Amino acid sequence: MIISNMKEKKQFFVLVLGFVLLVVPSIAFSEDRLLLEHVLESTHQHYPKIQEQYQKLRKAQAKLLKSQGSFDPKLSLQGRNTAGYYDNRFLNLELEQSTPFLGLSVLGGWRVSDGEFPVYEGMYETTQSGEVYGGIKLPLLRDGVIDQERTDIEVSKLELKQAETMLLMKKLEFSYQAAYYYWKWFSDGQKYKIYQKLLEIAQVRQQGIQSKIASGSSPEIDSLDNEQFIANRQALVVEAEEKFIDSSLKLSLFYRDSQGEPVIPSLYLLPDLPWVSQLFTQEQHDENLLESSLSFLQNHPLLQVQSLEIEQAEKRLRLAKNQILPKLDLSVKLAKDLNDGANTKINTEEFKTELALKVPLFNRKARGERQIADSELQQKKIQYKFLFEKLENNLKNALQKKQRSMKRLHLTERQWSLAKKIEDAERTKFNLGYSDLLSLNLREEYTAKARINYLEALFNYQVSLAEYRLSMATAQSN
């Protein structure tokens, strides 16, 4: 009982959806026909997977901003108050700025103290007005020509380019999918109209047959024969309607309104069936198409992405090689007490130079990082080479499929044209009384079959053309 109710609900849903698709026109575009360019425009603006890639682009922009923050100036404030045998106070205000130039850091500040300090803390003593100071720190070996912060910025810039390129690639990939489902919707819609037309012809003919039977000029078996054709064609219409509804639902994921909501395209939006002569351009007949296509392959977005990954790996390897070097830093500092006439240290200047060396004895961590970075770089290069070979094969295969589907399209158009001529001749014979109802019905169905073969060939051609454009990484079009 439950299963029966579920089936009834499903049938009711299909009937309602079919009515909406066939009767209610779409409101997403003002044009009276839905073209591929409309679907592609909607896909680029509203398709969720493309919107998701825009967020990845924003994330890459934020990551670059974060890495640039390593060179933001740093302001620090330190204060101390000591009570006891030595009663003193100390305040230090310092501004430090790291630079991308050879790892150089610059700092400056002001400090002031008051009270008594033990001998071992004499460096804290200043005049009442305090002391100003400035200095630089320059790494001479490790972190000199490159360091982690500068590497992060360079890698983040490459990742941003990578995200931009992937956005383009995603648009191409989903444009291909949109083109596929558009031509599937178009093909299924045209098939549905063909079967509807066949059914209408048989139903109108039935009225004429009944009139002839009533007048005694035709036998009753003619009515039974035609009813059999009507039943068969009704079944074909129901099956075609179901496929058209399915194709419309799938296309609605790519075809959306201005708010980004899916729009189910109706049968009213179906364009007319084009002839072969309307499809081809000079570019598609170019005999040197393969050679010219391969010349553009180097600029394929996926290869660009892989090339950017190689650059990132090279940056990391460069850093890893630098980290093997000893840590040798040069520091220079100049300090001057402010003159206020209240301390024996008035107008005292201090200039200090310091050289610090740090050498890891085994350095296994740095050597391991270098080997990892070198291995990753070689891996990326191998992936690039294989990707190029794969894209080259895909392009050759797509071009061959496009050329084969073009030939089949020409042949099926010829078959359709001949079938239509034979059907017209058969109808003329039938009207003159030289043919029977069975022969005419068969001719009509042969013509319908030939037209459907042409539709399938057209669908295969358009899909192969979209696949070729995807392999070429060029935009889809009508």
Question: What would a concise description of this structure say?
Answer:
The protein has nine helices and six strands, in the order H-H-H-E-E-E-E-H-H-H-H-E-E-H-H.
Written description of the protein model:
- With 478 residues, the protein is α+β, with helices and mostly antiparallel strands.
- It has two domains: 2-66 and 150-184 and 240-313 and 377-472, Outer membrane efflux proteins (OEP), CATH 1.20.1600.10; 74-147 and 326-374, no CATH class.
- The chain is 60% helix and 13% strand.
- It is built from nine helices and six strands, in the order H-H-H-E-E-E-E-H-H-H-H-E-E-H-H.
- Strands 1-2-3-4-5-6 form a six-stranded antiparallel beta sheet, with no helix packed on it.
- The longest helix has 69 residues, at 364-432.
- The chain starts with a helix and ends in a 6-residue tail after the last helix.
- Residues 1-30 and 282-287 have low confidence and may be disordered.
